[in-house]
Each structure stands twice: as C-alpha cells, then as structure tokens.
C-alpha cells in the first residue's frame, strides 16, 4: 500500500456492488486493516478511496443560444477528486457558440486529466 494514506480510523461505504458494505478501516502500523467487506472488490475500492479517490463529474456550460442558455456535460471517465475544482473552473470559461449533440467532446483532455468533457444532451443538436 502507498505511504500517502492518512492513518486514522474510518468507515467507508463500498459502492462497488449493491451490498453497500460498511468497511471499517483501522490503522495498523503504516497501513490499514479492513473489516466488514463481503468481497475482495470492497478492499480494492476502499484502498483507492484512501489513497487516490476518483470521481465522475457532471455539470453544465453556458451557450449563446436563448432557447438553451446552458447545456449539460459530463466527464467520459473518472478524474481525481482533488481536480474537481480545476475542472469546474475550466467549465466556467466555456461558452458554446455552435450546435453540439450528445457525445460531442466539449473540452478534450480537460485540465490535462486524460478525460474529456462531453455533451449529455441534444438540446443544441441541429434537427
């Protein structure tokens, strides 16, 4: 396990499967010991949450169109939780001035995360 773990007792609810295990994370030297998981996937999820939490992000961007002043967007993958504010700041600087459809890339490789911001709506699609 990486040495970036903040060692304090925690309980994390696993979201990998519908069980929703409450996994207790107890400091054990320079690592954690885990209990409460029903499968190994829960341990992998909790280790990732403790060392490098990742998130999908949904938001909206402005447009110049009066019939659709904003359009919804999302990441096409997960980004580090610590980068969410950077990505939101980048989205705040975007104003769409052309038609886009669902799946179109709005910002490629947003904030050098390796993830694209894509459109999730056909509100601006040409019919």
UniProtKB/TrEMBL annotation:
Gene3D superfamilies xrefs: CPE0013-like (3.10.530.10)
Family annotation (SUPFAM superfamilies): CPE0013-like
Protein name, per record: 4Fe-4S Mo/W bis-MGD-type domain-containing protein
